[in-house]
Amino acid sequence: MRFSDYGHNSHVGRVRVHNEDCYLVDTENGFCVLADGMGGHEGGEVASQIVVDSVSNSLRTGMALAEALVASHYAVLEAAANGEGRPGMGSTAVALKLNEGKFEIAWIGDSRAYLWDGMELTQLTKDHSLVQKLVDEGAITPEEAMLHPQRNFVTQAIGMSELHTMEVGRIRGHHTPERQYLLCSDGLSSEVTSAEMEAILQQDIDVQQKIEMLVEKALGNGGSDNITAILLTT
Predict the structure, then answer these.
(1) Which terminus of the chain, N or C, has less C-beta within 10 A?
(2) Order of strands across the sheet with 21-26?
(3) Domains along the chain with CATH numbers
(4) How far is residue 40 CA from its own chain's centroid?
(5) pTM score, two decimals?
(6) Which of 176, 183, 83, 172 is closest to 123 using CA atoms?
(7) For residues 21 and 227, what is the distance between their CA atoms, to the nearest angstrom?
């Protein structure tokens, strides 16, 4: 199954000097991957590029989605050991694959995927993060999580050498043509509320215009991180 249309954009934001996000949409093979690098200049941007390249190559050879993300973890570790990028560099990632009327999403960290059915926006992924753990425990609300001083602290990340096992989030479901999928780095989700996203997605404009408006909203709300978003339709 192929994507019939998609909108995309990546912006450095208003605070960062370098964009450490990376993404790829493969319309021919029906998958996309988005990575949010960590580690600064020549670190995070190298890690996110390795993740995108590794996951894409793995999927094109028939590897399963979650296994492709795990393979990218070892690719980042190997690159750092060989002097590419910086020691300790890493990345979060989210990837989507369509196949015969079904969708599959896998993720590591706090890069997200949402489902837009034309009326309601549903978050499909669940962050591997400290604030998500606090939300799950009832210690803070989702609204408080967006303002929490440790909201960028992830508990799982590609390239995190101290992890003995990599926890990959996974979700599968049936795809219907009227649905759209929004993938984004936390530069969007930490600045723009679900209600604000819905207000933009319900507008009668094309997918690229919606993406541009989402990025502009994130910039207007602070733009404290790199912002990357992809809106896919089939």
Answers:
(1) N
(2) 21-26, 31-38, 90-99, 102-108, 169-174
(3) 5-233 (3.60.40.10)
(4) 18
(5) 0.94
(6) 183
(7) 8
